[in-house]
Amino acid sequence: MILYTVPIAPDPTKVMLYIAERQIRGFNLGIKEIVVNTVKGKHKEAEHLTRNPFGTLPVLELEDETFIFESLSIIQYFEECFPEKALLPKKAKERAKALELERITDLRILNEMARYVHATKSPLGFPNNPEKASEAKTRIQPALDYLECSLMDERDFLMGDAVSLADFTLASGCQFLRFIKADLFGNRPKLRSWDERFRNSKSGRLVLKC
Fold it and tell me: How far is Cα 201 from Cα 61, in angstroms, rounded to an integer?
């Protein structure tokens, strides 16, 4: 299997953190990584568009030349096909809650972090848009409050004592912000402590660049 990816970008980072965590837990997925240079626009060229007509990353290429190009779909494929030492809980309720928190973190936090980055100092060269940046900063607040509250019980990570998909999602967004030296956590000490713990976790140290 081949993972087409790019460092620092949130969705590829989420998948790379997942792959690293599986390896740390003793299961090597055997993924070959190929970097697609988005700064040079390689994701918009025909070669990549044959893999993913939307031009986004990451993209997983299977041995039969099937392409999967949504980060959560890639992770769920790994979970289903390689259940040994999988990360998602096996029981339906716990699994649903883990996926729910990942979706909250992705749709309500990571998306807004990405919008903020691209509206302030886009690595892809999008024009600055202070109004969009302000809107993203406003929209992100309720979900950050939700996570800050959930960490009040002194858990180490977002779902408890072990890292989860939600941790990968949030960490990938935080790295994207750090890339432009931005910070949206505000006065939330629990989230700041979580960020420090995750960056110093084994998977965090393996994958995160900043």
Answer: 28
pLDDT of residue 94: 96
What letter represents residue 59's amino acid?
V
How far, in Å, CA of 10 to CA of 116, rounded? Answer: 13
Whether 33 contacts 19, CB under 8 Å: no
CB atoms closer than 10 angstroms to residue 144: 18
pTM attached to this predicted model: 0.96
d(CA 76, CA 54): 20
Q: Which two tokens stand for residue 135?
A: 């809107």
Residues 127-141: tens digit of each pLDDT: 999 999 999 999 999
Q: Which residues contact 179 (CB under 8 A, 6 or more apart)?
A: 8, 117, 123, 210
What CATH number has the domain spanning 92-202?
A: 1.20.1050.10
Q: What number of other Cβ atoms are within 10 A of residue 190's Cβ?
A: 17
Q: What is the CATH number of domain 2-81?
A: 3.40.30.10
Query: Cα–Cα distance between 5 and 68 in angstroms, integer?
Result: 12
Exposed, middle or buried, 140 (CB in 10 Å: 0-12/13-18/19+)?
buried
